[in-house]
């Protein structure tokens, strides 16, 4: 297939071509396909931009459904909703709940990881700071005692691929070490850690900051906290580019400070791809008004409760509103999260990788989506 623009990890090919072989990319190049390929292009996509399928490491729900239910039907709705917006690989993120309910959800979702419908399970809780709980049920927050850590890891049997925790909690650093030993991506988030406490977690193997700035001790010039530690270290940081969680100027600042280390996530809850209304995020009641999700509160000023974002909207906001280069934004939406999650066969338009791609029109709106060599939109 050919297109006016094809985004590869190194540069944007204009025009460009892709050769597919079943569910794999067999070749990518600039200009017209060389005659040595001995094939005729079967599809000219025209004046569009082809990018790799998006990879979302932090998504709780969409289409009115949530991963917290732990059911295959709900997961299918979430995955289909985000797939229509270009996300071809995603983690199933779970919010804080009782250990028994989280264990049950992890067990069910592990089956979906095994058959490839989701890329892994992300535990956002229950080992979070009560001072930075955000939209997590304070009464269910606990410290990461070894028994709880082992129970949730065992329930996933390898499916738990990422855990967000507050490293300053008792046992937090030991938990980071255990997660890293188990091959899990340990992330710092929902934390009131000092700079030194956050650095201790990074030294222990943590490699990601969960939704940087949100639900963590703020950056101060004499008390840099976890934000300062994450910016000061060669690790990745999540950013929610929806205009609610972060100002566009802050997006530009972090992209400049951490080239290649920024990861766009949606942190989407059930209302993503669904109308405004009343929803739930785990045990918490959520009101969605004008596309903004907040904890139910009579004043209408409850804490932000995830987002209603889809990854294509995040890409548009980062490029059109924040003014970031498309090449950098695509890296943050596809390549960087795939690398961080250990997904070697997705996240880039390169020979040998799975044929996951998104066709964007001139406004960066999704026109077509391919997953594993098949058009799904």
Can you tell me about this structure?
The chain is α/β, with parallel strands linked by helices. It is built from 9 helices and 22 strands. It has helices at 72-83, 99-114, 146-156, 172-181, 195-203, 225-231, 248-257, 311-321, 326-340, and strands at residues 2-3, 5-7, 12-13, 16-21, 24-30, 49-52, 54-56, 61-62, 65-66, 87-94, 120-124, 160-165, 185-188, 208-209, 236-239, 262-264, 277-281, 284-289, 292-295, 357-360, 366-371, 374-375. It has an 8-stranded parallel β-sheet with strand order 7-10-11-12-13-14-15-16. A 6-stranded mixed β-sheet has the order 3-2-6-20-21-22, covered by helices on one side. The longest helix is centred in the N-terminal third of the chain and has 16 residues, at 99-114.
Treating each run of at least 4 consecutive H or I residues as one helix, how many helices?
Answer: 9
How far do the termini sit from each other? 16 Å
Strand tally: 22
Widest β-sheet, arrangement of strands: 7-10-11-12-13-14-15-16
- Overall mean confidence score, pLDDT: 96
Helix content: 25-40%
Q: Major sheet, described briefly? A: 8 strands, parallel
Which regions are unreliable across 5 or more consecutive residues at pLDDT < 50? none
Query: Helices and strands: which structural class?
Result: alpha/beta
Instruction: Indicate the proportion of strand residues.
Output: 15-25%
- Which quaternary structure do these chains form? single chain
Write down the Rg: 20 Å
Which geometry do the CA atoms define?
A: globular
